[in-house]
Amino acid sequence: MQDTSSSKVGFVSLGCPKATVDSEQILTQLRACGYEISGSYENANLVIVNTCGFIDDAVAESLDTIGEALEENGKVIVTGCLGAKGDLVKQTHPDVLAVTGPQATAEVMAAVRNHLPMPEHNPFTSLLPPGGIKLTPRHYAYLKIAEGCNHKCTFCIIPSMRGKLVSRSIAEVVQEAEALVTAGVKELLVISQDTSAYGVDVKYKTEFYNARPLKTSMLELAKALGQLGVWVRLHYVYPYPHVDKILPLMADGLVLPYLDVPFQHASPDVLKAMKRPASAEDNLQRINAWRGICPDLTIRSTFIVGFPGETEQDFEYLLEFLKQAQLDRVGCFAYSAVEGARANNLPNPVPEHIKQERLQRFMLLQADISADKLRQKIGKNLPVIVDEVDDQQIVARSQADAPEIDGLVYIEAGNSAYNINPGDVIEVKVVDSSEHDLFAEFISG
User: Fold this and answer.
1) Residues in a beta bridge with 215
2) Alpha carbon distance 402, 257 (integer Å)
3) CA–CA separation, 284 vs 179, rounded Å?
4) Which of 56, 64, 114, 346 is most buried (most C-beta within 10 Å)?
5) How far apart are CA 245 and CA 242, in angstroms?
6) pLDDT by residue (tens digit) across 252-279?
7) Averaged pLDDT, groups of 10, the chain, 445 residues long
8) Cα 436 to Cα 251, 303, 404, distances in angstroms
9) What is the rounded distance in angstroms from the CA atom of residue 352 to the CA atom of residue 349?
10) Measured in Å, how far apart are the chain's first and last C-alpha atoms?
């Protein structure tokens, strides 16, 4: 049998959770074919870099990482969103072995086999873990339900890199979710470019899974996932009217009372320039209606300030929207021109110093809102999911906190830590708060 030490592949994964899922699929296929995964450049026979190409900083990081891999290893295959941006990678790093775009597992595997022959292996002794290779901790996993996007937002180039919306089979998605739960996953993070649009491309067709009909829609998928007995968290949800039907599931505890909704702005003029759906007034009404159905709802969102043509009046409109919406978790970015985005051709670009000044004002206001909302949780009992345990403390997240992007809950470990493990859902009492995080006491597990 061939020595598998000569068939080791290094892997670097950059970018968003959608790219993370792409990386997991490639890693799973590598392992299925008998390749070993190396944790270092020097021990690998070649390196795969899964890149991000959404904004300039991400492009720069990806190109730098490719350069580092070439310097440290010499044999590099590039995949991901940056690979879809013409010949930029080859122009910058002509020595890379191959370049593919995103969601290109078959093409990546062909390139690997071309430069590193597939080792002989026994599939009965080279078993994959249930659910495949995951880059997340064992107790949570991303569940990608679709690729691409049908929107034509002027600041975004995702459709040009990942194509139009292509929904996965709902039977396939539910089967994957069940496999993940069987493998020990306690929290499913549902992701896509536009989760609310799931199924629109296949006209919400009905499929059958375990002899029961399932309509390819966000509502039917949420109902099915809600039966698995784990936390289900919905990301990248556009505020379409049919999203209203998800809220009763949250109120009933089938799906976490959490929505990640990318509003991006509130000014009608800026939203129009962005080619974004809905208006601020519609969004405020919808938010109020959602909270009427599910008072415990957490809403996180992202915004862009300094978009071309944004006036001081537009920005003040956005600040007023924040005050009225009282969103729980918010991220904000100063507009950055992305190569290939139509927004680059819009008139009246905002000077960089004004962008930064508006970003600071935005974040100061939202920090006050966030801190106030967290203070209101002091004295309350909350279920939390444990991420880390050591002798000093337990690090966990509440239902209001998605991993890596939201806040944390810190609990003094004490004697309770010895019986608590990552993935456990325990009950705590909140005793203090900061701008982003909560501090709590253990009650029961």
Assistant:
1) 206
2) 12
3) 38
4) 346
5) 6
6) 999 999 999 999 999 999 999 998 876 6
7) 63 88 88 86 93 83 93 94 83 93 88 86 55 81 92 82 89 94 95 94 92 93 96 94 94 97 94 81 89 96 96 97 96 87 90 96 96 96 94 93 95 73 95 95 85
8) 24, 18, 12
9) 9
10) 49
**What is the enclosing helix (H) or strand (E) of 338?**
none
Strands (E) across 314-380 are located at 329-334
Identify the burial level of 312 via C-beta atoms within 10 angstroms of its C-beta, where 0-12 means exposed, 13-18 middle and 19 or more buried: exposed
Counting every residue written for the chain, the total comes to 445
d(CA 416, CA 87): 55
Where are the alpha helices (H) located in 163-294, listed in sequence order? 170-182, 218-225, 247-251, 268-274, 280-293
- How many helices (H) and strands (E) the chain has is answered by 12, 20
* Cα 193 to the center of its chain, rounded Å: 9
Q: Residue 271 CB: number of other CB atoms within 10 A?
A: 20
pTM of the model: 0.81
- In terms of Cβ atoms closer than 10 Å to its own Cβ (0-12, 13-18, 19+), residue 151 is middle
Q: Are 81 and 19 within 8 A, CB to CB? A: yes
Other CB atoms within a 10 A radius of the CB of residue 227 amount to 12
pLDDT of residue 196: 94
What pLDDT, on the 0 to 100 scale, is given for residue 330?
A: 95
Tens digit of each residue's pLDDT (9 = 90 or more) over 173-232: 999 999 999 999 999 999 999 999 999 999 999 998 888 899 999 999 999 999 999 999
Sign, Cα dihedral of 204, 253, 147, 172: negative
What is the C-alpha separation between 443 and 381, in angstroms, rounded? Answer: 8
How many whole angstroms separate alpha carbon 90 and alpha carbon 98? 9
What separation in angstroms does the CA of 338 have from each of 67, 134, 348? 21, 30, 16
* pLDDT of amino acid 291: 96
Angle in degrees, 0-180, between the axes of helices 170-182 and 218-225, rounded to the nearest 10:
20
C-alpha 404/C-alpha 137 separation (Å) is 12
- Which of 107, 88, 29 has its CA nearest to residue 339? 88
